[in-house]
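Running this now, will post back.
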Amino acid sequence: MQELIRRRRRAGFVGRQSELGDFRRNFQAAEEQRRFLFSIYGDAGVGKTLLTEQFQRVAKEEAGALTARADETSDSLAATLESLVGQLAPKSASKAFDKALAAHRQQLREAQNVPDLAEEGLSATGRITAGVGLAVAQSLPVVGPLASAVTAQEVSQAASRVGAALAERARTADSMPLAPAAALSGPFVDLLHRLSGDTPWLALFFDTYERTEVFLGKWLLDLVSGRYGDLPANLVLTVAGQRRLHPGTWAPYLDAIAYLPLHPFTDEEARLLLAAKGITTQPVVEAILEMTGCLPVLVAMLAESRPADITAVTDHAGDAVDRFLRWEPPERHAAALACALPRVVNQDVMDVLLGESDSREQYPWLRTLPFVQDDAGQVRFHDVVRTAMLRLERSRSPQRWRQRHHDLAGAWRNWREVLRMDERDGWWDPNWQDCAVEETYHLLCAYQESALATALGAAVRAAEVGTVMARRLADAIVQAGENSAAARLARLGGSLVATVGDDARDCTDFLSVLLDDSRLDEGHRITALTERAWLHQLANRLELCLADVDRLLQLQPDNADTLTRRGYVYRLMRRHHDALNDFHQVLAVAPDHVQALVFRGLTYETLGDDEAALQDFDHAVETAGEHLGARLHRGRLLRRKGHPARALADFDHAIEQYPASAWARVERATCLYHADRAVEALEAIERALDLDDDTAYVHANHGFVLCRLGRLTDGVAALDRALDAEPENVWALTWRGWATGRLGHADAALDDLNRAVAMAPNEAWPSAARGWLSWAVGKPAQALPDLERAAALEPDYEWAHLGLALTLLWLHRPTEAREALSRAADEWSRHAPYAQELADRLFDVLWRHYRRDDEVIRDAVHNAPLWIHQTSRQRSIRRFALPLLRRSSLPLMRDSVRILRYARAVIRDHPDTGPLESNQLTALADEVFDQLPQLDLGERG
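Update: finished.
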């Protein structure tokens, strides 16, 4: 039957000879003249699909190409690639791709069980963390510790919340394995290469691109750009849609693209088609041309009916459809009109409309109709024809219209229920999604605004999945409004569609339209506010986030999770005392609320009350020993307070419970590094890379460890990989600027640090790093505002205060410099009793020598992190310390040795309050004194 259909269509194909000629000649053109991408575009009904089919026939039958075609029936990138591979290669040849697809789907299945906040107690916090990945959320400036206060069980239940929005927005890349482009494109390109060697040409066709561009657009551009690997030289791509490939977006490839705009037939082409169907009577031809406007699909439709006289074609559009079908037996006439009601027809849908026995008889015939697109057992009417049929059916029998749509909605609901998924899981399953969208469409067609509350609720759930799903649901609302002549419904759908266009980064505006509608019920209003607050938080729109959480509290004032959520938003806004008030309220009525305990602990820590913080972390661990965030935060605080053994015990326990947690392994690596076990730290971070080498967070921390060990070139390479995965990772960008500056590339370093400061103006680390760089290259006036800002943002940030002290001294402001240096020494030594004396002695040395030994002092201080943390101390002394001392004046050398001896002595006398690097510093000082005779100081200090 399929071959009969193809022959029938081929035999009736006329026109478009110029386009077909261009496509044929491309296979014979010299390589430098060949076009590798054809863009067919034009309005609905101009014959884009039919021309695409002809292109595929020419490629296959005349050029010997291996071909495959995809269209809107594949509603995601993964489904599109699966369809293409299934057409291109047998299972035996596509094992690598099939394996990658199976792994990708397994990840999605594991990430689907997302409990509802109100029903099962999953907090908004858990959903936020799941969106970006528990293992990496700590690095987010907006999410940060919020993500840390979530159990791994919550994450496994909530991970797929983020959908398409976070793949763009999150500042880490833990969610990337869920992205089909990353998971499947490499194996797909590899398969193309293997196939290209056995065929003269490969030809891929993407039809109805206006429907699929939302998920194929960026991927296709990345594919052509070589992001997933070089494409075979004998590959030809064809894209057919209502709009051409945008010349701005595709500018680098314009010389290799053939644009083929399609317009309605010329009179000559339309007459040729009619003549091919035996319609030559001039009045009939003229009537058809006038009625159809030479739109190819309508010309073909009426040509198939072979009208004998003008009376058959002079009616309006509805009667034109009726007359086209009147040559069919009555049962087929009725069947075609009934089957125009659903947006997609398969055998099951036709069974609902016609009954099983009639459906089995009529379905093969339906697939042969010229205005029906047949794709592997599913058919769709062309929009122009279907619109006319719907108008006719609705006007002839409104009650039958309503009943049939009611029956179809019930059928899609039953098919959805057969999948045995609850609503939370179902919205993440492609088959369940199809059923839900079609059910919503038919309910709206049957009952218009009476069914709107149900549709609005479905739209909220779709928005939780992401912009692609939200757009599908909004399109269904628009089409239901248009097809049922419900103008208000169509306008609402149009408003929703406008918020999730190609440039939409998330569903914030989509949810705002829903929340502005009074017909949204309270349950879905809570869900929508929760989702929108989450999106505002991820985008750092904290005032808007707070406003939504306040509205949530008005709707559910006794909800502990929501009050905890508000407390954390206050933390993000640096309103720490307001945050504490909320956490106190929660814990007063729920003393074992783990998230509130962890958040309050983090807030105490920020305010400098480490003991109170540790008490809360201890309580959280005692209450929920399996809580990953509580245990890792306690370990981090213990490490920071100089208790590495106890910290490592927490990290080891966490890894034992969650062996795949990159966050736990990175924290362990950081602890080992601060415990002067640098080799083990590097091994630990490399173990994290073995588990997940696609994650920006892990690469960034790998780069950090390498940089701190003095391996700057390797560190920059690791940071490059982190930024390739996540270009907006401020932490990685700042570290790369830090390392690049110490490699002597000040301009490149400044570029990175300028970007980092612009992206995170309220974070101390980028501003401090830029200020330090400016001071190191001899520009203290430029350094001052950055370092002042960093010290104001984080008052206990010793590195910012030290940079500020040096900058003020170089600007000849000694009183302020001494005060800043005292603050730096106090914070650095953890408030040791010798801090003030150390600061005074160091200031005296700097004050005496900074003018004469300016360059030496700047080099020494700027590069101190490199030689202090070298794994080989002898190498560190030889490479950094001794050359710097040799460049110094004799008085500076003597003063430097004296203060080094003093620092070594007092640090050893106060081991519990000294700096975290106490062992490294004292051991390094010992090595310096061992090698002092090489300097020939004339005295031993």
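Residues 43 and 242 are 5 Å apart (CA to CA). More later if anyone needs it.
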